[in-house]
Write a structure and sequence with these properties.
Belongs to the ABC transporter superfamily. Keywords: ATP-binding, Nucleotide-binding, Transport. This is ABC transporter ATP-binding protein. The structure is a single chain. The chain has 232 residues and is an alpha/beta fold. It is built from 7 helices and 9 strands. The protein has helices spanning 49-57, 90-100, 105-119, 134-147, 164-179, 191-197, 215-231; strands at residues 2-12, 22-33, 38-42, 64-69, 75-78, 152-156, 183-187, 200-205, 208-213. The protein is globular, with a radius of gyration of 19 Å. Bound molecules: adenosine-5'-triphosphate.
Length: 232
């Protein structure tokens, strides 16, 4: 469904640190994502998990290597309202987000009432997003991503969105979607979430795929390596 082939990503570092000012984040990463699976990505802070998702979503272009997605398929990063237009209402932003993900205007309109209901924004749904609290923005962002169709859903550590009550509801809804016919790539630091949601997992370390495969064994290898590092 989606494939990264020998993907390398470098950032230029303004301070001239790293390798003569070049920060090598991903180094020839190759991976395959299959239809209907939930692929987990694990690894320490800063190893390039979010960068990998951004490359999959087409937001970032690799320095070298290639990304291929099956023709006609869309991949979208579940972002918590980062791309909202502040002057537009929650309703108009939800509409815009649905259309940006490929829905026709007619289809996008059909999503709106369920987005309003699930997000529990009430009358604020009609108000400009600039008047929202950060929790309200997250609710709108999460719900819009949840309710609209996307072939490959890329999720970056967001299952802890909102207050306790909304978080529980959001996690249950996301779990239901992930377990249905949805292809997902899921970045998380939570073993419990990776274990309960993923079919397969990839462990990134020093910009490379360090191990991949069955969730239980890769998680165990990863945990052992962290324990060894903390003892050293
Ligand atoms: N715009 C940028 N310019 C320069 N360096 C960047 C930029 N974005 C990310 N990086 C660097 O790329 C590396 C990988 O970042 P990334 O966000 O992909 O890590 P991550 O594995 O998702 O980390 P975390 O677990 O902390 O979320 C980090 O060292 C980060 O400093």
């Amino acid at each position: 469904m989606l494939e990264l082939d020998q993907v390398t990503l470098n950032y230029q570092s303004s301070k001239g640190t790293f390798d003569d000012g070049v920060h090598h984040v991903l180094d020839r990463v190759s991976l395959q994502l299959y239809e209907n699976e939930t692929l987990g990505i694990i690894g320490r802070n800063g190893v390039g998990k979010t960068t990998t998702l951004r490359i999959m979503a087409g937001i970032l272009a690799p320095t070298s290597g290639s990304v291929s997605i099956r023709p006609g398929k869309t991949a979208s990063l579940l972002s918590l309202g980062l791309g909202f237009k502040n002057d537009l209402s929650g309703r108009d932003n939800a509409m815009l987000a649905a259309m940006l993900q490929g829905a026709s205007k007619k289809l996008a309109k059909t999503y709106l009432e369920s987005i309003k209901e699930f997000s529990e924004l009430g009358d604020s749904f009609e108000e400009p997003v600039k008047t929202y609290s950060s929790g309200m923005r997250s609710r709108l962002g999460f719900t819009t991503a949840l309710m609209t169709h996307v072939d490959i859903l890329l999720i970056d550590e967001v299952l802890s969105v909102g207050d306790a009550q909304f978080k529980q509801k959001a996690q249950a809804a996301m779990k239901e979607r992930i377990q249905g016919e949805q292809t997902v790539v899921f970045v998380s630091h939570s073993d419990a979430q990776i274990q309960s949601l993923c079919d397969r997992v990839i462990w990134l370390e020093s910009g490379k795929v360090c191990a991949q495969g069955e969730v239980g064994s890769v998680l165990q290898e990863y945990r052992e390596s962290i324990n060894r590092a903390s003892l050293a």
